[in-house]
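Hi D.,

Good news: the full-assembly prediction came through. Inputs first.
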Amino acid sequence: MFLKEYFSTIYQSVKSLLTGMRLTGYYFTHPKEIQTEEYPDNRATLKMFDRFKGEVSMPHDDNNEHRCTGCQACEIACPNGTIKIITKQELQPDGKKKKAIDAFVYHLELCTLCNMCVSSCPSDAIKMANTFEHSVYDKRQLTKILNKPGSKIMEGVE
Ligand code: SF4
Ligand code: SF4
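Then the structure:
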């Protein structure tokens, strides 16, 4: 009885090993059919899927214009103080002053990528970018200003 069980276990183990080896051998001779991506070798061409949330970003158009009014809704919605909106008063052509964004400070090192800021923005000014590999040696590099230098708000966005 003991010997029967003993040899049965050996038989099952060898069978399982050969099953795995058969698959390994198949992919060895058919490299084009390999499904797994060779990360990080494919880093330059790797594109994350659309719903991947890598960091908060602020899209700008070709005229260096964004949609952020500086309303601070995203800052209030953020559960952990990742966003700091610094505003300024801008002089309008009619002589009146209007609130505008000076700096959209984003602390990627704090961000949990929960998307609440994006959902709360009434102007559709920010979105989740699907960038990846954010590791740095100095965490100060993770503090970002999302509005580009010299940018301004798009006409018609209130
Ligand atoms: S994704 Fe979440 S944690 Fe990150 S800035 Fe937006 S609200 Fe804050
Ligand atoms: S990103 Fe949106 S919610 Fe945040 S300050 Fe700008 S307009 Fe307001």
